[in-house]
Amino acid sequence: MAPFIVFEGLDGSGKSTQARALYRRLKRRGYPVLSTREPGGTPLGEVLRRWLKGRRPLSAVSELSLFVAARAQLVREVVTPALEAGTTVIADRYAASTVAYQGYGREMDLALVYELNNAATGGLIPDLTVLLDLAPEKALGRKSGELSDAFEAAPSDFHTRVRKGYLAQAAQDPDRWLVLDAAQPKRALSDQVWTKVQPLL
Ligand code: TYD
């Protein structure tokens, strides 16, 4: 199986930029590589993304279920087949987002969140999760203009809990998590990611 690498962080933490940088680095060096984003990446996932990023309020249970449904399809249709074919997969968000946002942010039952995640992923755990850690005030400040979705419109104590949820997960599994101070320059961050990824290839 090829390595499965996930980028996590608050909106505006720079995780998508770092996911792209790693994707390009691997491509340049000739590695087969695929990138995914959540929610999305499959026909059902894209439909659910529109709902989840839309303005219509969803109940916490609906929201949790839709993220999990999108993930279940993505793992089955895209991630697992790619890894089995020897393609490195770089994911912009994965199960840890649901623990952080729905579990810690929305304060849903953590055991339920873990159980649903486990059902959706079939137990597929990333080889490495890179957390772009940043104080919510700084992360949200990086997003310019109008608030673009319901999550970004949520108040900051929500984002403080989300950050805590990420750090708690990283602390539980330090060998498979890399926590980076996202306030560093982009190049310094991508070099630290590369140092950690190389031995996995
Ligand atoms: P994303 O498209 O990554 O937003 P951004 O590019 O703005 O970071 O994710 C959309 C939102 O969905 C984001 O605010 C985080 C949230 N989210 C959850 O709440 N739970 C989840 O399981 C996932 C994957 C995302």
What does this structure look like?
With 201 residues, the protein is an alpha/beta fold. 54% of the residues lie in helices and 13% in strands. The protein is built from 8 helices and 5 strands; from the N terminus they run E-H-E-H-H-E-H-H-E-H-H-E-H. It has helices at residues 15-28, 43-52, 60-84, 95-105, 110-121, 136-142, 156-172, 186-197, and strands spanning 4-9, 33-37, 88-92, 128-133, 177-181. A 5-stranded parallel sheet has the order 2-3-1-4-5, with helices on both faces. Helix 4 packs across helix 7 (156-172). The protein starts with a strand and ends with a helix. The mean pLDDT is 94. Bound molecules: thymidine-5'-diphosphate (TYD). Thymidine-5'-diphosphate (TYD) binds at residues 11, 16, 38-39, 53, 67, 92-93, 97-98, 101-102, 151.
- What percent strand? 5-15%
Task: Round the Cα radius of gyration to an integer and report it.
Answer: 16 Å
Query: Structural class, judged by helices and strands?
Result: alpha/beta
Which sequence of strands runs across the widest sheet? 2-3-1-4-5
Q: What fraction, in percent, of the residue positions are helical?
A: 40-55%
Mean pLDDT: 94
**Terminal Cα separation, in Å?**
10 Å
Largest sheet: 5 strands, parallel
Q: Helical region count?
A: 8
Shape: globular
Q: Which small-molecule species are bound to the chains here?
A: thymidine-5'-diphosphate
Please provide the count of β strands. 5
